[in-house]
Write a structure and sequence with these properties.
135 residues, alpha+beta, 3-stranded antiparallel β-sheet, two-stranded antiparallel ribbon, 36% helix
Length: 135
Amino acid sequence: MKMKKYARIEDGNVVEFFHTADSIEGLFHPSFVWVDVTQTEPSPGEGWTFDGEQFMPPPPPSAEEVLAQVTASRAALMAAATASIAPLQDAEDLEIASQQEIDLLLRWKRYRIDLMRLHEQPGFPLQFEWPSAPA
């Protein structure tokens, strides 16, 4: 028997998928609404809506949502950069840093500054380039 793909619909939204070769009926509580999406093109994903006849993708995020996502990502990258900088800065402050460590420290600091200045790029936050972290 061929596997079928089903989408569970809750309040008009796709919330999960289930694959089975058996009938979906009887496998779950009868209050669950399952729709066979085996042949549906394009294949819906979680977060899509279903109006009883067709599936629709979620709307694109608003500029405010994109800004919040970018800001959160930048904060995480800044924290990682700061954690990488700290021991290198300690070594430099104690005048025991190798030239390789000093060079790496400068690259990490430049990267952190580039992160801080993301908002200066034209098109931010919808279109911009993330800086590359030091290797």
